[in-house]
Write a structure and sequence with these properties.
The mean pLDDT is 91. With 422 residues, the protein is α/β, with parallel strands linked by helices. The protein has two domains: 8-146 and 363-404, Rossmann fold (3-Layer(aba) Sandwich); 149-359 and 408-415. It starts with 7 loop residues before the first strand and ends in a 7-residue tail after the last strand. Helix 8 (186-201) crosses helix 9 (203-210). The protein is built from 16 helices and 14 strands. The protein has helices at 18-30, 45-56, 74-81, 94-97, 99-108, 119-136, 149-166, 186-201, 203-210, 248-261, 281-302, 305-314, 325-330, 363-378, 392-395, 398-406, and strands at residues 8-13, 38-42, 66-68, 84-89, 111-113, 139-141, 172-181, 233-234, 241-244, 271-279, 332-341, 348-356, 388-390, 410-415. Strand 1, helix 1 and strand 2 (38-42) form a beta-alpha-beta unit.
């Protein structure tokens, strides 16, 4: 057990949901009870008891304690936060259910990590709670799953290598979502729908989604980056065609926030973008056009209230539904990050590959969140920040890549050859 004054080291909040169960399963499979004192938490005692039984069956774990709470009951959340060193939460949509837990963790001085990709809610927590979390020396770390660990930690790997090998950071980083397979749960799509609901009702949310620097600290919410790609584009770093990435609106902003929180080690002129590579020639251009068109039509439909309601009711799976264990274990993903510097007489390009042989949204994400929690618990970080509303790169940094590499992820970085120039 880690040396803490709390009864538990890590509590998995929302453990009976699809993602929460996978996080709890991962932690009990990867670690012994004498390494981490784990508890699972939620509002349904019967389902928690059943999960605890499953977690201890055939393992060295004699017991996994359960804690009861309700996302709408701040006192129950505060009581839970006071008993643990770290909370890993999978309870979304975070816009609807996340704020009371953030408040409870700051009040209790409990570190926190989640899976949110809801830009509007991250912006809210930045504005409302960053200063309080800094004062409390409490780390509130958003987006510790597929949104946004590969992009954010991949960028940190590229920039760390560039500074060590060449003495300067890359001016431009491009994130390529190259390949992947895996299911999507109803909870994830519910969060996606919540974002469109919030944008339809609140002009402040629409402004946050329109500003590429909306997650930067107050007073620093402007810069040289134009924002995410929306149309097919010929790629200047690798050649070939690229399409917009549906994750770019959150991942790009998280990377920019990392740079700002760390006091701009990558420079104030730093640019980042995330895209989907579609290949070369006419076929690549056609594929890029199809992807861009499909995303555009889907976003347009989700922006219309009656169409959004119909999609959520008849197309999206219900919250609590998700991929099968087989789909989770047989999935995979590869994200490649290229960084380029041309300002010097000897330009260079750095390449990182980040991937895993598990479905990105669940099998891999469970490991990312679990290891982020372990990093916070053991203070296995490379960061000057002891508190605040943070990102994976600014709160933890490359030690998270080291831990993920040790449990089967690909996380490699080297000088690239054959890349084009900006």
């Amino acid at each position: 057990m880690a040396d803490t004054e709390r009864q538990y080291d890590i509590v998995v909040w929302g453990a009976t949901g699809v993602a929460g169960r996978l996080v709890a399963e991962y932690l009990t499979e990867q670690y012994d009870s004498d390494v981490v004192a784990l508890a699972i938490a939620g509002r349904n005692e019967e389902r928690l008891d059943s999960l605890a039984t499953d977690l201890t069956a055939g393992t060295e774990w004699d017991d996994v304690p359960i804690l009861l709470g309700d996302a709408t009951d701040p006192e129950s959340l505060r009581a839970m936060a006071e008993r643990t060193a770290v909370v890993c939460t999978t309870v979304g949509p975070y816009t609807a259910y996340g704020t009371p837990l953030v408040e409870a963790c700051i009040d209790a001085g409990t570190d926190y990590c989640d899976l949110t990709g809801e830009v509007n809610w991250i912006r809210e927590t930045v504005d409302r709670f960053h200063d309080a979390a800094v004062e409390a020396e409490t780390r509130i770390v958003h987006s510790c799953g597929f949104d946004s660990v590969p992009a954010d930690i991949g960028t940190a790997l590229v920039q760390s290598f560039a500074r060590e090998e060449f003495g300067a950071p890359c001016e431009t980083v491009r994130i390529y979502v190259e390949d992947g397979s895996g299911g999507v749960s109803g909870g994830t799509l519910a969060s996606f729908g919540e974002l469109f609901e919030a944008a339809a009702d609140d002009p402040a949310v629409r402004r946050a989604l329109a500003n590429p620097y909306s997650l930067a600290p107050p007073g620093e919410r402007e810069g040289v980056d134009p924002g995410e790609q929306r149309r097919p584009r010929k790629d200047s770093l690798r050649g070939g065609w690229t399409a917009p990435s549906p994750m770019a609106p959150v991942n790009e902003r998280v990377v920019r926030r990392s740079n700002a929180l760390l006091h701009y080690p990558w420079g104030r002129e730093f640019r980042c973008s995330e895209v989907i590579p579609t290949g070369r020639g006419l076929r690549g251009a056609a594929t890029a056009g199809a992807v861009a068109g499909g995303l555009g039509l889907f976003s347009a439909a989700m922006a219309v209230g009656p169409l959004r309601s119909g999609i959520q009711e008849y197309v999206f799976p219900d919250p609590g539904e998700g991929p099968t264990s087989e789909e989770t274990e047989q999935g995979y993903f590869t994200v490649r990050v290229l960084g380029r510097r041309t300002a010097d007489d000897d330009p260079f390009t750095v390449e990182a590959e980040f991937g895993a042989d598990w479905g990105p949204g669940y099998g891999a994400t469970a490991r990312m969140l679990g290891e982020a929690g372990m990093c916070l618990l053991e203070d296995d970080t490379d960061s000057p920040l002891s508190g605040g509303v943070l990102t994976p790169a600014s709160a933890i940094g490359t030690p998270l890549a080291d831990r993920l590499r040790a449990v089967g992820f690909t996380a490699i970085v080297s000088e690239a050859t054959g890349a084009g120039s900006e």
